[in-house]
Specification:
Length: 441
Amino acid sequence: MKVNDEIETWIDEHEEELIDFLVEYIGYRSPTGDERAVQRTHVEPFFRDEMAWDDVSIVDVSPDSDRPNVNGYLAGSGEGPALLFNGHSDVVDVSDEAERRWTTDPWDAVVDDGLVYGRGANDMKGPNTAMIWAIKAVMESDVELRGDLTLSIVVGEELNEQQYGSIPATNALLEMGLEDPFCINGEPTSNEVHVESAGTFDFRIEIPGKEIHTSQKNLTRYPQRRGLPQGSAVGVDASIHLTEVLEKLRKLEHQWNMRYDAGVYGGGGTPVPTDRQGLGPIGINCSIIRAGEYVASLPGSATIEGHVFYPPGADVDRLWGEINDAVESVATTSDWLRDHPIETSWKEHVDWPPFETPRDHPACRTLGNAITSVTGSEPIYSGFKAVCDNAYVQRECGVDAVSFGPGNVLMGAHGPDERVPIDQLLEATKVYASTIVDYCG
């Protein structure tokens, strides 16, 4: 029996233990900022006691030293290429209100009808489990790896806090001597190879108005007799300009979607066009919209807080400039706004770049061959519509990366009834293991 076949058999024989590990993993409530318990009590002990790493280390650069990243390092025997796996233990929390929309307890995993339900099952404790158990399976085999093998289970991803997570964790491995590694990140991709992703930034638009008692609204909207106050001398309904701005952004978003042809990110899977992500060129999301403060007053101000997703290769400064142009165009028909400009700002909380990795990278080819070996099907290369740690691993640490993992963001990620299919979980575990043997072996 070939080594890869033996490892796949080992994974099948340990399916129950693998799922038990994931169930326990989900049981740790680990929203971003509160990752200590899951990392110290679940991940680190497993690395030290159940795996054959040459080195297990904690990397914690948080102010209170309570947000540990866990790194495992297995030194290769020769001059083989290095492989880094990466995943995050932090999850999106579930409020009491949101929990009522779940049909299961988000912190007490349920295994039902081929699925594991629970917060993090999909994003991304399920994929982390697959990576951990794939490496354990390789360690339990007789294969000797020439290239170094590493795994970082990190913190901070969900709130764009890579300065505490993937950046220091990856740099610590590079400082240990890891040379020219390739990173496989386990974000849920339906077991497709995501070679590029969106970028994203946040923005805020503040629209000035002028409060007046709602009974006087007609004075602000219609001409009055000579000598009576009218228009902006009385009041300005900021919500009217708000709707104009929203319409301008809607038209701009449509224009962007017609403009950008963004490879597999915008065009779907290749060479097999059956990807599960769908097209994802660009989006202007006006997420939080407010106008006014008192029910009996004309809205004296309005705000839009939003989020832009954009494709790799787009000029982000140009995008922001066009948003400003669209907003400023509203003032061309408003004497009030010409004298009281709308204020805009961006990147106050989120400035997350995209990533791009060549599909013909040797590690991508090895990963694709592993997919074919395990599934009997041709690999699908597509794009990640969301954002992930790869962007920082690539931009800040100089390590090329792709995402490949079980589940997808439509399976309750950041929402109710988050879940991961067990068949995809096992398939990903086998693909990871085969990639390790073929790339590092």
